[in-house]
Design a protein that fits this description.
The chain is mainly β. The chain has one domain: Aromatic compound dioxygenase (Protocatechuate 3,4-Dioxygenase, subunit A, Sandwich). The chain has helices at 12-15, 131-134, 138-142; strands at residues 32-40, 51-56, 80-84, 90-96, 107-113, 121-126, 154-155, 160-162, 165-166. The strands form two sheets. Strands 1, 4, 7, 8 and 9 form a five-stranded mixed β-sheet that branches. A four-stranded antiparallel β-sheet has the order 3-2-5-6, with no helix packed on it. The longest helix has 5 residues, at 138-142. The two termini are 21 Å apart. Belongs to the intradiol ring-cleavage dioxygenase family. One of its GO terms (molecular function) is ferric iron binding.
Length: 178
Amino acid sequence: MTTPSQTVGPFFGYALPYQSGPEVVPGWRPDAIRVRGRVLDGAGEPVPDALLEIWQADETGEIPRRPGGIARAGHGFSGFGRCGTDTDGGYWFRTVKPGATGDGAPYIAVLVFARGLLKPVFTRLYFPEDEAAHGRDPLLGEVPAERRGTLVAEREGEREYRFDIHLQGERETVFLGF
């Protein structure tokens, strides 16, 4: 018999976030970018106790395969970050823009844990300047054209992107089933 899933949270502030979790790379790196946004519920209200994880390739498209996600020592790149949301549903990561890992467009995999969810939801963050590559991306090709925009971050400056995640509602982000 399978054990049923249970809802998670709100417990993230106790054990899962860690101080340098959002800092996938140190700020002194010249290729560092900032990704920020908010997690919003179906009514457009902030979710103040969600937890986000990101997983990504490095700037050359290489997927890190070594330990050290938490103990980066300010130099390594693990491809992993974790950030809890604040009272306004806000989150941020300092990372690098990933390179493509095949024929598709560069992306960051995003997992969202939040109260009311039985399991985390999975999505992807794509970059607006890679529009030409979006057309050949196998996953984006499966998403209806009118919904693809929910997977593309907005550029907010030379090295900053905004990616709001809507858990439900009219502007719901596309989530992936595994």
